[in-house]
Design goal:
- The protein has one domain.
- 60% of the residues lie in helices and 8% in strands.
- It contains 7 helices and 3 strands; from the N terminus they run ααβαβαβααα.
- β1, α3 and β2 form a beta-alpha-beta unit.
Amino acid sequence: MAQERERAAQVGYEDPINPTYEATNAMYHRCLNYVLEEIKHNNWASVMVASHNEDSVRFTIQRMEELNLHPSEKKVYFGQLLGMCDQISFPLGQAGFPVYKYVPYGPVQEVLPYLSRRALENRGMMKGAQRERQLLRQELKRRLLSGNLLCRPAEEGRRLRTEGRR
């Protein structure tokens, strides 16, 4: 961000960086809302919501419901970096949303700066990682107590629907 701001000052164009995290989220949601509206009206359009932000995922799901965009239409996909935010990815997949995990690859000197930047951009990730560990422990305990250690997604989906959860 510092480099972008410095470049903008040198070249003489407006600072391209939002002033706050909240402003960044608001802009992202405005853009996403526009894209979802387009998807609703254009059969050829689709989008990958590649976000580790739970609020943005919730926003997307809420707008999809309002626009009657069903997950089975496969017009809206979700994606996160492998190893990050499984507490977002797994429930989305179980609810029928198309979810992808991506893996950056290449020379170490190119991949590490990318991963470092992603970690810095997602400062709340450690809190999310702690929450994810807690959720994994709860799920493991539930499976051990129920005698159902192996996950069977089709059965899990039926169980979640019968309990009235997504």
